Amino acid sequence: MSVSRAALCLRPSLCTPTLRANHLRFSHSRPAFDTDDCALPRNPTWSVDELLSSYPKPTINSKTLDHLHRLSALTPPEEGTEARQQLTQQLEDLVKLVEAVKMVDTRSLASAEGTSIPDGRIWAEGAGIEIQGTPRQQEEGEVLDQAQLLSYAARTENGLYLVGADRKSKK
Q1: What is the DSSP string of 110-169?
Q2: Residues 2-56: pLDDT tens digits?
Q3: Based on the structure, what is the number of domains in the chain?
Q4: In what residue span(s) does the Glutamyl-tRNA amidotransferase complex subunit Gta3 domain sit (predicted)?
Q5: In terms of Cα–Cα distance, which of 23, 11, 83, 93 is closest to 52?
Q6: 65 in the same domain as 21
Q7: For 144, which of 7, 54, 89, 148 could close a Cys bridge (C-beta 3.0–4.6 Å)?
Q8: What is the SS3 assignment for 91?
């Protein structure tokens, strides 16, 4: 195979060059899974469930579920219902995922500058998001100030909105 034909190899990561009789030859190794012409797998090669199967599954009891609902000002599903079982299962799966992520050792990902995992929200030097400042004019109309907006709220205290999370539980 000539060098020009070698450049046409659609799977360069699978091609290993060997020198024989003054010309370049390539041998191909077959992947363990089916790939397309760009060497991308046609089907998933792993799953989150498969990765998490080795981690212990936490349990969330009924008291904890009710407490979480009280904290979020939500009404919990009735005891013994299918909805409650599904919600408990989903929360247990989420806790398992969070605990697995917390166990990952990221110290090897630190760069030479000492920063940890790179942030995807990269900004140019000297640029950024305006966090505080004057509100900008909206296209539809004028921007109301804080006092005007608070005047529309049903309940306020010390210049803040009050929400109904302080309701008493039905015990």
Answers
A1: --TTS--SPPS----TT-----SSPPPPPSSSPPP-HHHHHTT-S-EETTEE--GGGPPP
A2: 444 444 444 444 444 544 444 455 555 655 778 888 888 888 888 888 888 888 8
A3: 2
A4: 56-107
A5: 93
A6: no
A7: 148
A8: helix
